[in-house]
Amino acid sequence: MNQGVQQDHNDEEDLAHQVQKRFFSDVTQRRSMLVSQMPLTLSLLLVAVLLAFVSPATLEAPAFEAALVLGLGLTAVCVLVPWNRLPRSAFVVIPLLDFLAVALAREATVETFTSLGLLLVFPVIWLAARLGRTGVALSFVASGLVAGLPLLGGPSASAADIARPFLLPAIMTVIAGAVHILVSSLAAQDTRLKLKDAELRMAYRESLERQRLLDTMLDIVGVGVQAVDATGKDILMNQQQRQNRSFASPTHDPSSGEQELNILASDGTTPVPTEHRPVARATLGQSFSDYVVRMGTPANQRVLSSTARPMKDKDGNFAGSVLAFSDVTDYVNALALKDDFVANISHEFRTPLMSILGYLDIVLDDPNDDPEQHNAYLRIAQSNAEKLLNLVSDLLSVSSDSMGVQPQKMDLKDVIGMCVATAKPRAQNRGVDIINEVSQPLWLTADPARITQVLDNLLSNATKYSRPGDTVTVRAWDTTDTAYLSVTDTGIGISEEDLPKIFTRYFRSNDVRESATPGVGLGLGIVKRIVENHGGTIDATSKPNLGSTFTVKLPKDAHHNT
């Protein structure tokens, strides 16, 4: 039973919903009808109020009461009838009946209000505005009937009464014609405005599409692009240039003006004067290419190459400039690295070559000298030649990337012992002590020659960058699948800024270059490549003036790169 009651309730709600939907679906049409009808209805009500004070007897006249009831009834019909479900011309019934309402009211008040016929202007306007020429014709006919209604009364008709049917329809027809012309003009103007609006909307959409295309093209080029007007105000700026601005701004605000940015000269520390900055120069109409500036702080900066070209307006006057900013930081760093490499490699070649040539000159200049002395000189020359050969081999290995490995079963303890024994004499000459803490065999599958090369480089670096009295400690241990090798020194250490770069080819820190320590920055790059070809990893930890630890992690039995 409850389900039946619930079903009835749902049916009632559905019915109410359908009624509401039907009633309100043509709310716009109903509103239009009501707006057109209300002026006449309100005018009739106003006449009724006036009659209550001026002529109460007229107010009770059957004709006026009929006119008032008809006007109010037509108003209700405008609201209640579903006009959207009727033919488009069905509304004509309302203004035509309005003519009848005016005729009744006019006839009832002829002795009190002689100009009540002017109320015909409301249905006339309605018909003329909605039906055009047909409405004008209907207005003339209906006005004529309203004006001629008194003639049907018989004896009361006079000459003036006979003239009225022609005058009022004529006036109403003129009004209807004027309304028709005005509405037609407004309709034509509305059509033109709609067409123009459609054109403008289309142009706006096309402009947005072009703007999106331009933004996408500018963002994809990877170059900062900026356009300024003749006063230096930003017109356009792509995403890359906003990033450049944000990087150079002390507050990381991409909207910061150029005068607020950290723009430095080629030395990386001196601020560029405002008038010499790229946008300021471009605002003056200057055209330039490859004008290099540095953006950011002295500790963190990017090198940008700027280019500017002026824009002209249709009269040929300066209208602004377009600038492009290319990030050439990596290129500049590569050039600096190349210069450092050339200087270092020249030094590394020059020193042993001078030694070789010097000792050979001694032998050649005095061939009768002690043979043992000659042999000592030749051994020194041979040692320096081997250094050169090793250096050339390293360079060839790095350039060709040929760091292949030939894995085999090996004991890491034996390799460590041999490498420590080889490095100790040089370390002792520098006052550095090497401690080998590996005493137990540690077996793994690896290339003994390459692992020896790794350990030789690590021990050489640890000794080279340690001070007299420092120590170098070698450790090794393993887990089920992994072998570990570490070299720890108590030397000068590596700065936090340089630590991420130490495995980069040819990299040498400023402190090392200033200390005139020999080397070209290849050792650790070679070590990293060999370890990775074994399927392992290497990392480093360091503290300036406290020392460094390099830890190699190798799989005991893994697939190796060749």
Describe the overall structure:
The chain is α+β, with helices and mostly antiparallel strands. Helix content is 56%, strand content 16%. The chain has 16 helices and 13 strands. The strands form three sheets. A six-stranded antiparallel sheet has the order 2-1-6-5-4-3, with helices on both faces. A five-stranded mixed sheet has the order 8-10-11-13-12, with helices on one face. Strands 7-9 form a two-stranded antiparallel ribbon. Strand 1 and strand 2 form a beta hairpin. The radius of gyration is 51 Å and the shape is rod-shaped.
Considering the chains and any ligands shown, give keywords for the structure:
562 residues; alpha+beta; 13 strands; 56% helix; rod-shaped
| CA gyration radius, whole angstroms | 51 Å
Straight-line N-to-C gap: 85 Å
Binned, the helix content reads 55-70%
Order of helices and strands: HHHHHHHHEEHEHEEEHHEHEEHEEHHEE
User: What is the residue-mean pLDDT, rounded to a whole number?
Assistant: 81
- How would you sum up the major sheet? 6 strands, antiparallel
Structural class: alpha+beta
- List how many beta strands DSSP finds: 13
Low-confidence stretches: 15-25
Count of helical regions? 16
Q: What best-fitting shape do the alpha-carbon axes yield?
A: rod-shaped
Report the β-strand fraction as a percent range: 15-25%
Widest sheet: strand ordering: 2-1-6-5-4-3
